[in-house]
């Protein structure tokens, strides 16, 4: 009887061991999160505030004034990014913005004589645009970047101080540089904030009432906020 119990016990042990060997453990499923890519085209809306530093000068006698324009702007931008394997992002972008930026300079002195109240210089920025290259570094959904290129602006310059009067409109062309950051809230919706400095150079002004030469210089700074849809 004792031998029989021993044999039964050994048989059960072997059976359990065989069953344990038959169990196959499958590796746990690894869930991978897709990595966001900045490669692709986009179009967006932007708004911001512009402040300028201007200088108007009559070359005949050295009279001058600084009717620095300032005001709001808003418009659209469109571009394309390519993200390299090293996370460096290269891009090209174009934008145009309507501007409500104006500056008046009262007390303009002609030949050292102060102007009467209400007389003086005026400058208005009606719209501006730029074509820029961009260079950034992708930190997953965050993209800090720098940008630079050529800029354009439609600028009206005028003077109501007799006898020297003018009312001139010109498209000024210069260069622009900027720094900013973008964040992808979703795979398609991307927000941005940017600071931009632009030097539009100088423009010759057409005098209405006397012979002579005058010119206007303009540089601007602006802060812009944008929201874009990535294709």
Write a compact overview of the structure shown.
Its main location: membrane. The chain has 231 residues and is mainly beta.
Strand order of the largest sheet: 1-3-4-5-6-7-8-9
CATH third-level topology: Porin
Shape annotation: elongated
pLDDT averaged over residues: 84
Structural class: mainly beta
The tally of structural domains comes to: 1
| CATH A-level architecture | Beta Barrel
Helix content: under 10%
- Give the CA-CA distance, first to last residue: 82 Å
Query: What's the total count of β strands?
Result: 9
Strand content: over 45%
The CATH class: Mainly Beta
Largest sheet: 8 strands, antiparallel, barrel
Figure out the total of helices: 1
N-to-C order of helices and strands: HEEEEEEEEE
Rg estimate, integer Å? 34 Å
* Poorly predicted runs of 5 or more residues: 5-11, 16-20
Walk me through the structure:
The protein has one helix spanning 2-22, and strands spanning 40-58, 64-65, 70-83, 88-106, 120-137, 142-159, 166-184, 189-205, 214-230. The chain is elongated and about 90 Å long. With 231 residues, it is mainly β. Residues 5-11 and 16-20 have low confidence and may be disordered. The chain has an eight-stranded antiparallel β-barrel. It has a single domain (39-230), classed as Porin (Beta Barrel), CATH 2.40.160. The chain contains one helix and nine strands; from the N terminus they run αβββββββββ. It is found in: Cell outer membrane. It comes from Mesorhizobium marinum. Residues 20-231 form the Outer membrane protein beta-barrel domain.
């Amino acid at each position: 009887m004792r031998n029989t119990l021993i044999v039964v016990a050994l048989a059960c042990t072997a059976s359990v061991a065989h069953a344990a060997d038959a169990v196959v453990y499958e590796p746990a499923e690894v869930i991978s999160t897709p990595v966001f890519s900045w490669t692709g085209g986009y179009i967006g809306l932007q708004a911001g505030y512009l402040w300028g530093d201007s200088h108007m000068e009559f070359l005949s006698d050295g009279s001058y004034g600084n009717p620095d324009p300032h005001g709001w702007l808003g418009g659209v931008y469109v571009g394309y990014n390519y993200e390299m394997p090293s996370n460096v992002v290269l891009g090209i972008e174009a934008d145009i913005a309507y501007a409500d930026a104006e500056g008046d300079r009262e007390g303009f002195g002609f030949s050292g004589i102060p102007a009467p109240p209400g007389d003086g210089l005026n400058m208005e920025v009606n719209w501006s645009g730029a074509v820029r290259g961009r260079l950034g570094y992708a930190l997953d959904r965050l993209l800090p970047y720098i940008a630079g290129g050529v800029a354009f602006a439609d600028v009206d310059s005028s003077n109501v101080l007799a006898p020297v009067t003018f009312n001139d409109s010109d498209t000024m062309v210069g260069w622009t540089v900027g720094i900013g950051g973008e964040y992808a809230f979703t795979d398609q919706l991307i927000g941005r904030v940017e600071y931009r400095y632009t030097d539009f150079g100088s423009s010759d002004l057409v005098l209405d009432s006397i012979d002579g030469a005058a010119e206007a210089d303009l540089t601007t700074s602006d802060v812009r906020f944008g929201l874009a849809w990535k294709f």
